[in-house]
Design brief:
889 residues; alpha+beta; six-stranded mixed barrel; six-stranded mixed beta barrel; 23 strands; globular
Length: 889
């Protein structure tokens, strides 16, 4: 019998349709032959009799077909009823088995629940973040547009470039530009900083937004000169204005200027942004003047809805033709720029999709480990039911019937485990929401919904197949007479079944090896990323932010009198050692520009690497803890016209003047004439990473002025005592200078490193949790199988002791078995690590995927787990009384 026929036999209780047709053929033939014999006895010839039977009987083929269909319908109904009755009977038997062995059932249910729950929780996150469409009408038609240099991605647009693309293309049904900003909101209570977006009216139109009260912007209100009208979010309307229905038409103060509220967005509306969906508090018209704006100033993001029948490729080709014309007309700014049309979904998800799929794969390994664990336990349990199976077989139950019963019992356990898993997933989603960084969740609302429940049901059915098939097929089906005659006496479970149980243990240990090795690599990556802290004693530095309202038409190089006065007062506060300010914090840099150093000439065909630009005040380096390696700090005189002084970092010097003294050297913006910046280097500081923990320090420059488009101000205050104790005094000092300017985020410089490591820390924590769960499951599975093996070999151990074996030799016999399984499991796990190395590589930093140290450590961990799981059963087996064993024989 083939294996396929064997599987079919599990669910077949009667004959096939062909057998029914054969039975109908026999029955019709019998009746026809009987009538022929009767007519022949009445005096007819054979031919006459057969002709009369055919005339009376009708078409035999039609009759056979009709009777066969009726018979098969009846037989199928009977089969279904018998199968249902058999399933109910098997299910009852399964629950009786659970009541007889509640401890075993509890272990199996919790093990499966843990595996199914972990998968369901991660899938709920994946479903909400990756698999759910964006909350806009026809989201696949929403696109973003970027103008990077050739070979790069995701560069925003300048105002003139946007105007040229908008006027020359007809690929979009509605598209516009926007710029995210923080805003100072005052009036009607304490001033606060709120999140805002300045945008074209067509952006909300492209998103399909509708106002729940009032209206949205009209196109003319977002054209220069813009109307001073605002749309607020539902959340801000409730939180600050108490859901006041009279808010429409009222004025609010934004950056100390009056704006009229014309609309309120619906609850739950989210605005797309880089790496997630956000909930801005205020929407304002964007002010554009393309005719006078700098074509090299890139800050606008474009969002639009493709026209009917247009594809992203067609839109990119259309815009690319315009970009080529701009490159020929403006080679200085557009010479090597291209246009990219990127689906909005790709921008919103960012890295979330890849990381969440990897996490789902990790939880899949945990589920496989749980299934292997339970399968081993079921094999061991079934081996202990030889007498029961023999009795059932002697009463007429065939192998298929007994196998189906064991599968049904497993199904009952799996469904209880699935229900437990859903409860764990319901709690686990809350835990994942707290652990995972907000950037990875992409602003999605995580919940266990119908799709997650369906996935859990599918995982339950898959679990039943994985955990029940092998134990059911290797269940003891020996000759019933010999089994009943010998009772339960046996020395070993049999070589074949012993190999199956050993394979289950090895599979668990192999999966645990992969997860433990991955967790170790992740932990080492986290240590590598957080080991270096360039800032001196960052725990003593208070970082506090506020926003400086920008004013149109301001000069680029000018002092900030408000900041200077604020720093003067802060330096006079008790416990303050030094204070300074910057627009950009370490690890969170944003502004870059192309800079030419002394000795370098402008070349439109050369791609000049960008330099991080950090506007900073005198005293900022000492306050933040950045060492000055050469020259001096920034000073007020560095802002003198024609003698602008800047400070560069080590990376800038290494790139442009390796081995030379940078002091006194001149730099300028990358332009053929009239560059936006010309300055002289007055100092050099140590490198500080600007783009995150895992990106090495890049070329950087500190400027002595605060340009109008850099509205953020970050105070760095070095203190003698607890930095956070200074917050109330600092808040009062700022309020005394300007009651409309609120203090926003407040933290220590040490928190900068913790914030930057949050994503890696959360992923490492989850990997570590799953690795611990894997080790625990592997230990439990090994313990269960080894305990069963020890019980089955009690008589053998007793005989060995009676023949002179020491108890240490008996213990070593079983320990050696467990350690051998761990060695083979580690070898299989090593192959798994090799296969998953490319996937794991995307999650690592500063460490290779094939690290022998962690491989050895993982192998040692498995050895310890196997030794611990085998030790207690081995010790029990060594305490067996040989006299009692011989007497029982």
């Amino acid at each position: 019998m083939s294996s396929l026929d064997g599987w079919k036999g599990l669910f077949r209780l009667g004959h096939s349709r062909r057998r029914v047709e054969e039975e109908v053929d026999d029955e019709v033939r019998f009746h026809m032959e009987g009538l022929v014999e009767r007519y022949v006895e009445g005096g007819m010839s054979q031919d006459q009799a057969r002709a009369r039977v055919r005339s009376e009987f009708g078409d035999p083929d039609a009759i056979r077909a009709e009777l066969a269909a009726l018979g098969w319908k009846t037989r199928r109904r009977t089969l279904r009823r018998e199968l249902a009755d058999s399933f109910v009977q098997d299910l009852r038997m399964g629950f009786r088995q659970m009541r007889r062995r509640p401890g075993f059932a509890t272990v199996v249910i919790l093990t499966l629940g843990l595996g199914i729950g972990a998968n369901s929780a991660v899938f709920s996150v994946l479903r909400s973040v990756v698999l759910t469409p964006l909350p806009y009408p026809e989201p696949d038609r929403l696109m973003t547009v970027w103008t990077p240099w050739e070979g790069y991605r995701f560069n925003p647009l300048s105002e003139p470039d946007w105007a040229d693309l908008r006027d020359g293309s007809r690929s979009f049904q509605a598209w516009g530009v926007y710029e995210a900003q923080s805003l100072n909101l005052s009036g009607d209570g304490e001033p606060e900083q709120v999140s805002g977006v300045r945008l074209s009216a067509t952006v909300l139109q492209a998103l399909g937004a509708q106002a729940v009260q009032g209206r949205l912007f009209l196109p003319e209100e977002t054209e220069a000169p813009i109307a001073r009208v605002a749309v607020v979010s539902h959340g801000l309307w409730q939180r600050r204005f108490g859901s006041d229905p009279q808010l429409l038409g009222r004025g609010i103060l934004i950056d100390q200027e009056p704006w009229t509220v014309i609309g309120i967005l619906p609850k739950g509306f989210r605005f797309p942004d880089w790496g997630g969906l956000t909930d801005p508090d205020v929407y304002l018209p964007v002010s554009l003047e393309p005719a006078t704006a700098d074509r090299g100033s890139y800050y606008l993001r474009v969002l639009g809805r493709l026209g009917e029948g247009r594809s992203p490729e067609q839109a990119e080709e259309d815009l690319g033709a315009i970009a080529a014309r701009l490159a020929a007309r403006y080679p200085e700014t557009n010479g090597h720029r291209v246009v990219q049309v990127v689906p909005l979904r790709e921008i919103v998800l960012g890295e979330a999709a890849g990381r969440l799929w990897i996490l789902l794969g990790v939880t899949g390994l945990v589920l496989l480990l749980a299934c292997s664990n339970v399968a081993g336990l079921l094999v061991a349990r079934n081996l202990g039911r030889k007498a029961e199976m023999a009795v059932r077989a002697s009463l007429g139950a065939g192998r298929h019937r007994l196998t189906r019963q064991l599968l049904t019992e497993t199904l009952a356990l799996a469904f209880l485990g699935g229900g437990t898993g859903l409860l764990l997933a319901w709690r686990g989603t809350d835990l994942l929401t707290r652990i995972l960084p907000a950037s990875l969740l992409a602003g999605a609302e995580i919940r266990v919904d119908g799709l997650v429940v369906s996935a859990a049901l599918g995982a339950t059915l898959l679990t039943t197949l994985l955990t029940g098939a092998i134990p059911a097929l290797v269940a003891p089906m020996e000759d019933s007479s010999s089994t009943l005659r010998d009772g339960s006496r046996t020395f070993t479970p049999g070589r074949a079944r012993g190999r199956v149980m050993g394979f289950m243990v090895m599979a668990q240990l192999a999966l645990a090896f992969v997860l433990v090795d991955g967790a170790g690599l992740m932990l080492q990556s986290l240590r590598k990323a957080t080991a270096l802290q360039e800032l001196n004693d960052p725990g003593q530095v208070l970082v506090a932010g506020y926003r400086q309202p920008g004013e149109e038409g301001e000069e680029l190089f000018q002092p900030d009198p408000f900041l200077e006065e604020l720093l003067r007062r802060v330096r006079g506060l008790p416990g303050v050692r030094e204070a300074g300010a910057a627009t950009t914090l370490p690890l969170e840099g944003l502004w870059t520009s192309d800079i030419l150093a002394e000795g370098e000439a402008y070349d439109p065909d050369t791609d000049v690497p960008s330099t991080h630009m950090v506007p900073a005040s005198p005293g900022y380096f000492r306050a933040m803890g950045i060492r000055i390696l050469a020259g001096r700090d920034l000073a007020p005189e560095d802002l003198t016209e024609g003698a602008l002084g800047v400070v560069v970092n080590e990376a800038f010097v290494a790139r442009h003047w390796p081995g030379e003294d940078p002091l006194g050297k001149r730099i300028r913006g990358n332009a053929p004439s009239d560059p936006w910046l010309e300055a002289v280097v007055v100092g050099m500081v140590e490198d500080v990473r600007q783009s995150g923990l895992e990106i090495p320090a890049e070329s950087g420059m500190y400027l002595p002025f605060f340009p109008p488009f850099q509205t953020s101000r970050w105070l760095a205050i070095r203190t003698d005592g607890d930095p956070l104790s200074l917050v109330p005094t600092l808040r009062q000092t700022l309020s005394e200078l300007d009651p409309y300017r609120p203090l926003t985020q407040v933290f220590t410089a040490q928190d900068l490193y913790e914030r930057a490591a949050r994503g890696r820390s959360s992923t490492t924590l989850i990997f570590g949790m799953f690795a611990l769960v894997a080790l625990a499951l592997a230990a439990a599975g090994t313990f269960g199988v080894m305990s069963f093996s020890a019980r089955q070999r009690f008589r053998e151990m007793g005989v060995r002791v009676a023949l002179g074996a020491t108890r240490g030799e008996v213990v070593w016999l079983l320990l050696r078995m467990g350690l051998s399984l761990s060695v083979v499991g580690a070898g299989i796990g090593l192959l798994g690590v090799l296969g998953a190395s490319r996937i794991l590589e995307s999650l690592l930093y500063g460490v290779g995927t094939l690290n022998p140290v962690f491989m050895v450590a993982s192998g040692v961990s498995l050895g310890l787990v196997a030794a611990a799981a085998s030790g207690l059963p081995a010790f029990r087996a060594s305490r067996v009384d040989p006299v009692e064993v011989i007497r029982s024989e």
